[in-house]
Design goal:
Blueprint (H helix, E strand, L loop, with lengths): L2 E7 L10 H17 L6 E7 L14 E17 L2 E6 L4 H14 L7 E12 L7 E4 L2 E6 L10 E3 L4 H14 L7 E6 L2 E6 L10 E2 L6 E18 L11 E11 L21 E2 L2
Parallel strand pairs: 7-8
Antiparallel strand pairs: 1-2, 2-14, 3-4, 3-12, 3-13, 5-10, 5-12, 6-7, 6-11, 9-10
């Protein structure tokens, strides 16, 4: 689906990070200043995607993978993009995975291209039938019989087994325009796990309201868990090439992408030299 990414280089800092609508106006003023010459900007990159297919070229979103902790012992290491981040086992698996997420966020090499969170909600699919619905952060998704029946962003195919159906729902969540900047989803077997991209929304977002018992809401709200998600800092398919490996007793890694990498990054930009503007 159509998306646009603008990267502008400036000679002077912006000041404190700005958020919400007022923040958007602040950054638009900076970009307008680049165009007029009122703000010194050596270069501006414009990455445009006008695809309309419901696929990996959909609305731009971060790539993710998940570190899973179970019966953890000793020192644990997650190597992300060739940088090792290590933590010692804490009082519980939950405490350890919370500490690992914090260590990834604090690592000054890794946090240039990835971050981490263990705030998740999840649900399990078991023999879902066409017409079954489930609400994810206010968006209702509907199961349809085949991939060919998917014609809107709110539909997902149930043409395979539970594992395939869960992956189809995770992909639908990730490509949805209203959710691309709020959560990311990953499937393991028949389970769809969602990670919150903004921890400040942990009391706002939720999954739930399934229309049939074939979708079980295991955890409706986003809470700290033993699943630590590694999240690419920049939206787009480029995040799928971030590598992740693990070592230590009880620590494993899962991805919906290539083994040992992040996956599920969306937004297929095809930059050209002509898309770089030098004021």
């Amino acid at each position: 689906m159509p998306s646009l990414m603008v990267v502008a280089n400036y000679k002077r800092p912006f000041g404190p990070v700005q958020t919400k609508q007022e923040g958007l106006r602040h950054y638009l003023n900076q970009l307008t200043g680049s165009a007029s010459g009122d703000v010194e900007s050596p270069s501006v990159f414009v990455l445009q995607n006008d695809g309309v297919a419901l696929d990996a070229a959909s609305y731009s979103g971060q790539a993710i993978g998940v570190l899973i902790g179970a019966s953890l012992e000793g020192e644990l290491t997650a190597t992300i993009g060739a940088t090792a981040v290590a933590v010692a086992t804490g009082a519980s698996d939950l405490a350890t995975m919370t500490a690992l997420a914090a260590a990834i966020r604090a690592n000054t090499t890794v946090n240039q291209f990835a971050t981490a969170s263990n705030l998740q909600a999840y649900m399990t699919l078991a023999t879902v039938l066409a017409g079954t619905t489930v609400k994810v952060c206010g968006i209702t998704f509907t199961a349809v019989a085949t991939a060919g029946d998917v014609v809107t962003a709110e539909q997902f195919s149930i043409s395979g087994n539970d594992t395939a159906d869960a992956l189809a729902l995770a992909n639908a969540i990730n490509r949805h325009p209203a959710l691309a900047g709020r959560i990311r989803a990953l499937s393991i077997a028949g389970v769809v796990r969602c990670v919150l991209l903004d921890s400040a929304r942990s009391g706002v977002e939720a999954i739930g309201d399934a229309s049939a018992s074939t979708i079980t809401i295991n955890q409706a709200t986003f809470v700290a868990s033993t699943y630590c998600y590694v999240i690419a800092a920049v939206p787009g398919v480029i995040g799928n090439f971030v590598t992740v490996t693990v070592s230590g007793t009880g620590l494993t890694y899962a991805t919906n992408g290539t083994a040992g990498q992040l996956g599920s990054g969306t937004g297929a930009y095809r930059p050209l030299f002509a898309q770089v503007f030098i004021p």
